[in-house]
Amino acid sequence: MSRFVKKEITLLQYILAINGTQVGTSILTLPAELSKTAGTDGWISIIIGSVLTTIVSLCIVHLMAKHPGDTMLELLTRYLGKWLGKAVMVIWMLYALFAATIILFVTLSILRTWVLPNTSNYLIVTLFMINTYIIIRGGVQIIGRYAEFVFFFTLGLPILLMFPLKDSHWIYLLPILKEGWMPILYAVKTTTIAFLGFEMAFLFYPYLNNKKAAAKGIVIANALTLIVYLHITFVCFVYFSPDEITQFLWPTLTLVKPIEFPFLERMEIIFVSFYIFLFSTSGIPYLFFVIDTLSQLFNKKDWQLPYLLLPLFVVVFFFLKPSYEELELWKEWWGWMSYFIAYAFPVMFLFYVTGYTHWKRRQIDDKAG
């Protein structure tokens, strides 16, 4: 019996956990970032980025399917050896830690700008870390259930974004390919960063109760993220003029700001308050990946020491207060890291594993002959 049986997640939880990791901070900034590079043709870049992400995602699933009972660390040490495999795993752990840190800083920046301008960073982070500890302690199964809850709990947000369409101008989308394919292809690098989170399939796959459906699940997860991004981008593109949208840092929040009801004002505060849940589903898997990796590297399953990482975040956020420009630079570094770690590595490792497997089989056949 697999050691993951008691911690299994369903296919729906697997899909929504990956989708939740992807739909993080980019949903608030993606339309403006695409507009600066590709104009209103940026929606095409989203589709291309989704296709590339899905291809790499299937490579990850194919890798894990070779040894369904293995974790990522066990798979790496199986094919790369003990020391090289652990070294690669450390690189992935640092990558996940950097990603979680950036997501948390971006979340704080948005919260302090729109909702809690006079609240200290470390107080907000302390509240985040308490909730994060409770969820992470439950393992992947609780993370999957939490992602499932958040998805259905926040289903009203996309509906809310439909209200501004009464003042939309669909003519803004025309003409298509107004500046050719080069700006669109150049903007793909922005969309591939927006789809980050798919690489957590390395983490979730061993716990999936129906591993034969893993490929279908990750395709659905990427397609769901694609629908969300296209929805947000189209609404922003037809509401704001092509020049106007580039002037906003968070056009999605600016979009909901004019919405008012007789009994409710400042809709953007309500939107951000609900969106905190989506931020958490983006950051928690990366933090769990770090803590779980530390436990595996030192071969201590119930080790409590890695959880000291969470209060350490509070200390770091007490002293470290990056400016918006510094945070954008960190996001750019994360993007460059992701090209090599999240995108290139699974494809290259799959080629290596396939070649290594064929070489081993030839050796066995030669000895048998």
Give your account of this protein's structure:
By secondary structure, the chain is mostly helical. It has one domain: Up-down Bundle (Amino acid/polyamine transporter I), CATH 1.20.1740. It contains 15 helices and no strands. Helix 4 packs antiparallel against helix 5 (82-114) and helix 7 packs antiparallel against helix 13 (267-297). The protein is globular and about 75 Å long. The two termini are 36 Å apart. The model has no long low-confidence stretch (mean pLDDT 88). It holds the Pfam family Spore_permease. It is a multi-pass membrane protein. Keywords: Germination, Membrane, Transmembrane, Transmembrane helix, Transport. InterPro entries: Spore_GerAB (IPR004761). Its main location: membrane.
